Amino acid sequence: MDVNRVKQILSSSADIEVKYKGVSVWIDQVNEDGKMATVHLRGPLEERSIVEISELEERE
After folding, report:
1. What is the pLDDT of residues 3-44, one digit of tens each?
2. What is this protein's expression induced by (predicted)?
């Protein structure tokens, strides 16, 4: 995924499924460097991780 698509997903009201290493995540924000994003797992756990945007995958 690229940074522009991540920004589109963040500004969308739609529920767009994004996966990181096969696990569904919510994108919280794009970091200032434009290469990393802060995400957290979908579900009850709110543990946040900083991941490379290039490793995020959009599911249709």
Report:
1. 999 999 999 999 999 999 999 999 999 998 999 999 998 877
2. Expressed only in the forespore compartment of sporulating cells.
